[in-house]
Amino acid sequence: MEISKKLKKNFLIEKNHMRVPLMCFLTWITYAAITFYTNDYYSNSNAALFFNVIFMVLSIPVGFLACWWIDKFGLRSAYHIGTWANFIGNIIRLVASGTFIDPSIRFPIAITGQAVAAFAQPFVMFLPTKLAAYWFADNERAIANTLSSMSNPIGIAVMYSLAPVFVNKTTPNNFFNMNIAVTAVALIPVILSIFINKSKPPTPATPSRDIDVQAPPFLKGVIMCFKSKTFIVLSICLGGGIGLFNALYNNLQPALCVKGYSPTFNGGMGTLLIMSGLVGAAISGIIVDKWGEFEKVMKVSFCVAGVAAASLSICINYENVEWWVILSIFVFGAAGFSIYPIGLEMGVEATFPVAEATSTGLIIMIGQIQGVFYVIMTNLAVGKPDPHDTAIQTCVDQNDQIHTVLTWKWPFLIWLGCISVLIMSFVVFFWPKYKRRNYEQAKKLTEY
């Protein structure tokens, strides 16, 4: 698809906004690929789990504040809040990770820093649809939203690959250097925030952003969202998909290492999940911009992701089947991530003229609520490894930590069951109306 001059110009604005979610998700996912080293270093058997879950838990109360703030004060101020909260949180985490800090207080300080960084998350996760709506034409919004939204998984992919490089068998206590790197990266959007000086262009990019289109007040907008059957189905199913992805990030590394896969392979699978998702999201964004087939693209992608999830849930229980794991994760990532950005755009379409950050924020918050549930539920279903798995596991190096190694057969079957329910519900009940596109088309017809 040929990218217009306007898209090229506004992409410079988009790139600056993209860096914030990327940095936030570097912070969120820092410890997921090094679960056992994290638990040991911070003297808490659930440290890595808590570092993950606190992002999801805090996104719910902070999310309502972020929805209201973004819609009332615009992109610029939200960008500044997001960059600074993330940076300050990383500084606190950096201090906590030093060997000069007493081991007994490392975790309390680190979780405080993680909480501060988590405060930034809603202020940046809710921006893509509003950014696309204000700065891009109607045939550019989906790909613009994709470019911005996918900075989230890029950050995850980068950290999933780099964390095992810093912290591994030979350098198990290298958390301070790892956090120096993450904090340095978090400084970049703080510097870039100097150049963000406006929230919207002087001339509306589309008819839906004309001054005669007034978004309802925040609380009324929330009520309007939940009066829409389309939005309810979308928020539960797409939000559930977000939550299940979060659970997969948290569980993938310990599930693979108990079957003898190397830390390098485990980190690489987290990266592959994201990179394949970038391909799928880019393709789906182009298709939607060109033909507007939100519903068909999402339903096909959801079904393909379900098949790949079933494959992954089976192969995760076997050793020495790298090709099977790679294929399953590649297809699941490509199909699953293609749903996310166009699903957020669909939320805006279904609830127009509700402000973009409100519909997007509600979907993501519902996803985070489900994510907390899925992570806790799957972690409660773990089991003890058999003698063979204990002998081949690569999770821990010390015998006194062998009790922390667990099997993940039942958690992944539960995970698959949840995905299956969401897919069936989405295919049967999701029949959307494109309110924003219909308004824009009617507006254009009246101008001729």
UniProtKB/TrEMBL annotation:
Main location: membrane
Annotated TM spans: 20-37, 49-69, 107-131, 143-163, 175-196, 230-249, 269-288, 300-318, 324-342, 412-431
Gene Ontology MF annotations: transmembrane transporter activity
InterPro entries noted in UniProt: FLVCR1-2_SLC49-like, MFS, MFS_trans_sf
The keyword Chloroplast is assigned to this record: no
Coiled coil: none
CDD domains per record: MFS_MFSD7
GO CC annotation terms, alphabetical: membrane
UniProt keyword Transmembrane present: yes
Membrane topology designation: Multi-pass membrane protein
Subcellular location: Membrane
One Pfam assignment: MFS_1
Keywords of this entry: Membrane, Transmembrane, Transmembrane helix
Name of the protein in its database record: Protein CBG07580
